[in-house]
């Protein structure tokens, strides 16, 4: 997690742009079939190599970030980020890095893996504007974007973003070959940096980029992640803004021997279109579209700096923990999000089950990860040492709390999050990517909790945390990301184990969230399956008493005198219906700790913000386990 070594006064810059700011080589290997899903892969499917039982037992949690931007991203460069992909990989391994707003940050625990995912659009171009030796620096738009006057620079950047949206890029950049040469060079540098820093068994780098699509400002961004040490030029919104065209491109890439997958992010800012019933063109989703999406997008980024996309209070009114780090607006815009259905993953899981039940296809069978979406090459995941997201614009406590440069997003709505976690037998590109493809993954909002989740029919007396339970759990069932097919009798059993971050807060509770469908509608229910401190669920209300709060407001510290260092549960759904499709995932909550904005206020000698939470309960979300009820999805 980032630790500030020194603090200095930042350079100041107004917000530049809104619409698109968000966000040793080896031979390619072709992925093979999946072990955790009972199905036959379609041609071109995103598949992982199946693990043997011995490998499954050896899996361990690897913590990383699959969403990091550097100066090669056109927006990050305008935020005065000068860090390169090399700098990002170096920082992730525990080395110090200067922040564009001043100060130097360093992780106190290195990450296990990282993918630099600079925007495919204009990759390296704004950086080239500042290079006198590059012909692009002589363009009028370059003079505008790099002008020290924030108003002129902002206008130039808005023109650049508008040209991307309108397809008039050549009117600003001249012949396409000039910009194309810069993009090709930047992509070569991105790949080379990843390969330079790859240390199999110790630190994994993955080659990737961001496809920065939107529909009238509604977020449809994706990160594209490769399994190999080489990759073709990125597919960007210059070619098409339709995500389905991206998936078709990836299908062809895999046929050429480059295993690759796509990860949607910030569905919370999509205003209901990320997980809707229609495609980008407005056409109702059909089986062919669902299969295409399912083959290419096995996982979703559920939490990051721009908020958490698990669920929304209006979608889950009975979930007392639904109102967690909600981003209320479009990305880089004050426009309010008004459509929540289709924008959050829990609702999408239910909508997918409803489609599967009625029409036989399900485009939304995805696992979950977290990541940061940092635009400084620094992972801002610590509440007590938050470094911001957008360079000089939110890189100091004062700038954040005063919202000094909030001409688009209100940076006080941003969160210190998140991390991607995979269960893999070793720390290599192949093992990390394969875990993503088989969905044996989970997300955290920053802490490094260790969470196991299994489901099966034949667990007998197996209890989590006892004996060789992990071997039995794998041998007799499926892990997170897997599917349970129906049986003639009995109910499935779920095993959960959660361990606190060794350097973080104790655990409050473990919950299993159930989503199911019936009569064309989908439903949800949250079950408290393990509670710290001997608490019990009140049978009248269905709620457990709060865990308490140990935060000392004067010192901005907390004590692990409540909660538990670990929680385990063996649980069977008391309302299980063998004829009903369902999905189950685990949510783990820590005890309350201060939010980053409270830490910032304390440092400045101010009272905490009153319109934002003083404390939060950091959490983890696992990939689901599906129950298919004799109605398996068609691929």
Automatic annotation (TrEMBL):
Task: Identify the stretch(es) annotated as Disordered.
Answer: 25-52
- Asked if the Swiss-Prot or TrEMBL record annotates the protein with the keyword Signal, the reply is yes
Q: What span is annotated as the signal peptide, if there is one? A: 1-27
Tell me the InterPro entries matching this sequence: DUF3604, Pol/histidinol_Pase-like
Q: Which SUPFAM superfamilies match?
A: PHP domain-like
Q: Where is the composition biased (Polar residues)?
A: 25-45
What are the entry keywords?
A: Signal
> What is the protein's name according to its record?
DUF3604 domain-containing protein
Native source organism of the sequence? Sphingopyxis witflariensis
